[in-house]
Amino acid sequence: MNSSIRFIAASGLLVSIVSACTFGVPIDRRQVGGTGAIPAVEKSSSGNPSSYVVFGKRYYVLDNAYGFVERGTASWYGRKFHGRKTSSGEIYNMHAMTAAHKTLPLPTYVRVVNLANGKSVVVKVNDRGPFVGDRIIDLSYAAAQKLGVIGPGTAQVEISAVRSATEKRRPVVRSIPLTDQVAADIPLFIQMGSFGSEVNAQKMSRQLRALNENSVSVSQLQTSNGLFYRVRVGPLYDIDEANAVLRRLNKKGFSSARIVVDE
Description:
The model is unreliable at 1-34 and 164-185 (pLDDT under 50). This protein has four helices and 14 strands. The termini are far apart. The strands form four sheets. A six-stranded mixed β-barrel has the order 5-9-6-8-7-10. It is of the alpha+beta class and 263 residues long. A hairpin with a 2-residue loop joins strand 12 and strand 13. The chain has two domains: 5-161, Barwin-like endoglucanases; 180-261, Alpha-Beta Plaits (2-Layer Sandwich), CATH 3.30.70.1070.
């Protein structure tokens, strides 16, 4: 992996040059060892452009992490990057509970669960990466050790955003009326378009995947007016997450996208 990456805002201007594989926090005793990082209310002054490009791919940073859950491969970094500056401007401490993620706001506190052994730890995401294969998160040496990832090098994990006890929930404009029960039990989707032609639907689907929207599906809907092909992103099970995804898609130019309930 290259030692540096360029963060480029949507305007194309160079935002900053940071280490692609480094991540971490100032050497702070409260975050070293123990059961994990202590969630706090904060916002990094750097590392949060609306989007950036790495190895020819553009990544879109989420507005917030409410309801964020993801499963995939975790890896870790150690001594080679100890003491280097991270994307957030903090210094990587391999003994702190930290991590790197491609699109979560910096910082975000997430719980990481090793799906193989059930071990979990809370880490502070304060850098960008990993940009190798299908990996979704890079763990510090300390976090990887707690989760049993040091030996094998990688592990299948689930990561979920953790809210600080002192954090105030930001108001979210609901695009559709949903009761809490409905929001919890019925999948939500972002409907990108509805086409009478399957060819046009598949074309939009490919366009979305090219923009790193991988949870795209094309489904058929029979109506009194004929057969339609719907292009949707999802499923999503949290209205806050759905709103965040909708804002991200709007920024990519899909102004007609809207949240819908599964039918």
